[in-house]
Amino acid sequence: MQPYYGVREHERSGDAASIVALYARMAAQDATIDPITSEDWAHFLRLPQNKQGKDFRLAVLHGESIIGVATSSLRDSAEDLRRHLRILVEPEHRRRGMGSALLKEIAELDRGSFGYLQTVCPDKWTTAAAFYNRRIFTIADRELEMSLTRPNIHHPESQNLWRIQRENVSKELSASLAEIHNQAYEGTRSFVRVSAQTFPDLLSERSQLWTARLAENVIGYCHIEEQETDRWLESIAVMREHRRRGVATALIEAALLHPSPDRHRLMRLSVSESNAAALASYRRVGFQIVRSSTRYVADRQELLRQMSAWGLHQNGETAKDHL
Fold this sequence. Notes:
By secondary structure, the protein is of the alpha+beta class.
């Protein structure tokens, strides 16, 4: 039987299990893709920018089997409308036009609006890089993944000026952390504004939250996610007036020294290559670069015009597709 491919919204109750299975199959073939659990996917959907998957699209075979996924979310920008996306298609189903079909669906979400699409592509994804290069995406930045196996603890003398502690999020604490988060990340390409109400949605059941307090005032925080095999430093932010004083380093060191069963697990993080201050802080603690990715950006309307000129066959195929 001739395979029939299509795209649909993320909406069915059984989608979570099928998507977890898709990630497992792809992770077995590609070390840059991490397998996920049902809990991971549920937490991902709860993130404020993801709106329970409302703007996600799924590639399906014969209307049933999920063989690809496109996640997308709007990011906060003062200058323009910016939508972040990630497209994954199983290798055996590539070159059938599903990458183009998923991309077109995501680009059309903001029809009538000016703005940009952006994605982060690991350097080892040469097929994906060729796909984006053919579609007027241009390089905007580089993302570095760093890992830490042997911490280099300094115990800076200034550490006794503030108190580092692990805390559970409360309504009052959430308001302070949201303010620090917005101040620290506003203006970056992946910025998502949070509030006291939405900040707790960033945390999962396996989150660790560390704060730095000067007297009783919160001046910084560190958010770590415990995963199946390692730990991910999800976010670290310090109030502007307290930066470059060792607060971020002290937060990381406190998390590394905390006596827990997971303390010896590999810790990983992602940072922009252009963020020199953060890179220096991470290197001081002992983080090393293990892989890199390229951030691609495309004008949404120009992209749709190009894809319209190329055209898609009835089954979603295009001669220029690599995904």
